[in-house]
Specification:
CATH topology: Beta-Lactamase
CATH class: Alpha Beta
Shape: globular
Bound molecules: methionine sulfoxide
Structural class: alpha+beta
Strand content: 25-35%
Number of strands: 6
Helix content: 25-40%
């Protein structure tokens, strides 16, 4: 059983170290859920985020997947909230202040900023990674770059 080791360095150093750990833990012989669960846990406890998890595409909705953090809404329609908008736009969305994002879905009143990163399979979005912070403006281009790399590691899973 491996234990999560956390770098004390800068955000770039933490992500770089985390990616090597994620690569060593990912298991391509099992389905995507198990790997999403470990990625959510590793991101959450490395950075101390408020909520870290996945929503998966089922028909015209996103359905809650593996996550760490407080209770969250179970279903999100395409185009709704930050998650549904990221799916519709097929791109990462950075939200420095959730109160300024029209249509933001507040699963928790403690959430202040957010990033949502889509996961593609054959150019279709199959899931999104959603991360909430209890502080304003937590996420920037560094998070976007590394989180896009991290979700891409899931593409080859079953
Ligand atoms: N805030 C998200 C909803 C999901 S929760 O934050 C876990 C949104 O607006 O899509």
């Amino acid at each position: 059983m491996k234990e999560l080791l956390v770098s004390n360095g800068s955000k770039v150093e933490k992500y770089t170290f985390l990616i090597t750990q994620i690569e060593s833990v990912l298991d391509y012989s099992v389905d995507i859920i198990a790997n999403m669960a470990n990625i959510a846990a590793m991101l959450h406890f490395t950075f101390g985020f408020w909520w870290t998890g996945f929503y998966r595409v089922f028909g015209d909705e996103l359905v809650l997947g593996p996550y760490q953090g407080p209770l969250a809404c179970t279903k999100i329609k395409k185009g709704r909230g930050v998650c549904g908008s990221s799916w519709e736009q097929k791109s990462t969305i950075l939200v420095p202040d959730v109160e300024k994002f029209p249509g933001h879905i507040a699963c928790s009143s403690s959430s202040r900023s957010e990033i949502v990163v889509p996961l593609f399979k054959e150019s279709e979005v199959i899931a999104v990674l959603d991360i909430d912070s209890d502080k304003l403006a937590t996420f920037d281009e560094v998070d976007k770059e590394f989180l896009e790399k991290i979700v891409n590691l899931l593409v080859v899973t079953k």
